[in-house]
Amino acid sequence: MPVALSLSVQYGVPVPELPRWRLRRWVAAAANAAAADPPYPFTALELALRLVDAREGRRLNLEFRQRDYATNVLTFEYGTDPLGTARGDIILCVPVLRDEARQQRKPLLAHAAHLTLHGVLHALGHDHIAAADAQVMENLEIGILEKMGIPNPYAA
Q1: Is residue 87 part of a domain?
Q2: How many Å apart are CA 130 and CA 8, to the nearest integer?
């Protein structure tokens, strides 16, 4: 059964390549794959996804992570309530996404899809601090992207 999804998309900057329907499709794919992959049980997901410029991205990263630069994706995980609803906020910094895609010679949509999935998985409790956890998270990302026809972002 698909995860019940409530998604708010906020555009701090215009990004015509990333309409709400496309972002929603990526978020839903990540949520449904994660729901099928215990130990992260949840039945619903409430997310806010905000696309920002470098100035806002830098401010948020400094304020909440004490890092004075704009990062590609910033996720705030709020946990899962007793009824099974997971909540989180995801910030995507558009100029950083564009720069990284260009530098890595990847299509913007492929890179944006990957980082959106990455943010969703973080919002659902996944992390990549320990090597074993990183491998689980990467494998999940690779599998979801593969189903969407997007190549493995971790391949050399």
Answers
A1: yes
A2: 31
